[in-house]
Specification:
406 residues; alpha/beta; Rossmann fold; ten-stranded mixed sheet; 12 helices; 29% helix; globular; binds alpha-D-glucopyranuronic acid; GCE-like_dom; carboxylic ester hydrolase activity; AB_hydrolase_fold; hydrolase; signal
Length: 406
């Protein structure tokens, strides 16, 4: 599957990486072009994140010093996040190595079904937040191999996405967005670029980063934001907006995540906006059946995170997320990585944009092999999931690329 040629070579035209910016220096990328791209994503896809808001308080609810066979400290922290209209409490579950000589780098990601679903540890409080389906303790544990991360010196922090905002249409006023606007305001001022749930969750990740900054055992300069599927879309959007994230990882994030909209396979804008209208801003609906008129495409989201490292993961049976489209994003973002002296998934030798016909001829790496460096990619055998095998690649990527802060 992975190495089949495209249906027709070069049949998509991508927006130019540099757009109208003529100074093509690393500095110009960082200060002019990346902010333009983030702005275009805010205006057309995810909506604008309001400024203001922050963390009001952090309270430790539980702490166990001999978790995971006495290799880790397990803590639950209640973080009070606030906006102009109020505050809400969210719970962060944290594991960090017990014997640390220096603050630990952190893998930070949202979870789908509650912190208790990520571990069979009976001490972790059951989440009372909304869930789509019943979520017994530990039922997502295979997606969260905490012991593996601890063994490699990483801390792992997670928050239930629905504790920030419920994952359903009509929940804006009762979640993070309700900290900024009333339901009546949202209705009255209906703006095409009003932020969606992905924006609200990404805001929550930034608040989690604020909280990490107050914990001396953790290194806030080495936080890798990661996520699976809708939460992988969220991780990329969080990293693009907030320069403090040291690196980003998206797993099977697909449409409106790592995959190119213009590579027409798997989910498209019509499907995603019909099924998940609450994730995006209203302006995004204009592009149903009109991918070619979007002013951006997802390679630019990856490139907007540069020079910070990015890793993209796919699964070969996950056709809905379009693995080939996810890989092609990395190919088309590679020139920007090279601009900063790094290496992406393909060598572009100074090409400003990789032509589609050339990109479509690039073979994907074999199953299980991570290709690239500062921008890297791997594809795993199997379906839509995130497994220990994926985490191994995440940590290889992080080991190789995290800034040396010693
Ligand atoms: C649906 C949706 C995807 C999303 C996925 C998930 O399949 O169509 O866009 O990534 O849910 O979050 O698991």
């Amino acid at each position: 599957m992975s190495n089949k040629p495209e249906r027709s070579l070069g049949d998509y035209q991508l927006p130019r990486l540099w757009g109208p910016v003529s100074d093509r220096s690393p500095e110009a990328w960082r200060t002019q072009r990346a902010p333009q791209i983030v702005e275009a994503f805010a205006a057309n896809v995810y909506g604008r994140t309001p400024s203001g808001g922050g963390v009001e308080a952090i309270v430790e609810k539980s702490r166990v010093d001999d978790a995971l066979d006495a290799t880790a400290v397990r803590r639950e922290l209640t973080i009070t996040v606030s906006g102009p209209r109020g505050s809400r409490d969210i719970s962060m579950l944290l594991f960090h190595p017990s014997n640390i000589s220096a603050p630990a780098p952190v893998l930070l990601g949202l979870n789908f079904q509650g912190n208790h679903s990520t571990t069979s540890d009976e001490g972790v409080a059951l989440s009372r937040a909304w869930v789509k389906a019943p979520a017994p303790r530990g039922n997502q544990a295979r997606r969260w191999p905490y012991d593996q991360a601890i063994a490699r010196g990483y801390a792992v922090a997670t928050i239930h996405h629905a504790s920030l905002e419920e994952d359903r249409p009509g929940a804006a006023a009762t979640g993070v967005r309700g900290l900024f606007h009333t339901a009546a305001q949202m209705e009255r001022d209906r703006q095409p670029d009003h932020w969606g749930a992905i924006g609200a969750w990404a805001w929550g990740l930034a608040r989690a980063l604020d909280a990490i900054g107050s914990l001396p055992e953790l290194d806030a300069r080495r936080v890798i934001v990661h996520g699976h599927s809708r939460l992988g879309k969220t991780a990329l959007w969080a990293a693009a907006q907030d320069q403090r994230f040291a690196a980003a990882i998206s797993n099977d994030s697909g449409c409106a995540g790592a995959s190119l909209f213009r590579h027409q396979a798997g989910e498209n804008i019509d499907m995603i906006t019909q099924n998940f209208p609450h994730w995006f801003c209203e302006a995004f609906n204009r592009f149903q059946h009109a991918e070619a008129s979007l002013p951006i495409d997802q390679h630019q989201l990856l490139a907007a995170i540069a020079p910070r490292p990015v890793h993209i993961a796919s699964a070969d049976l996950d056709a809905h997320a379009d693995p080939r489209g996810e890989f092609l994003s990395t190919v088309h973002a590679s020139p920007v990585v090279e601009l900063f002296g790094g290496r992406g998934t393909v060598a572009t030798e100074g090409a400003i944009d990789v032509p589609a016909a050339e990109a479509t001829a690039v073979e994907m790496p074999p199953i299980g092999v991570r290709a690239g460096h500062q921008l890297s990619y791997h594809i795993r055998a199997g379906g839509h999931d995130v497994l220990a095998e994926d985490w191994k690649h995440f940590m290889d990527f992080a080991d190789q690329n995290l800034p040396d802060v010693s």
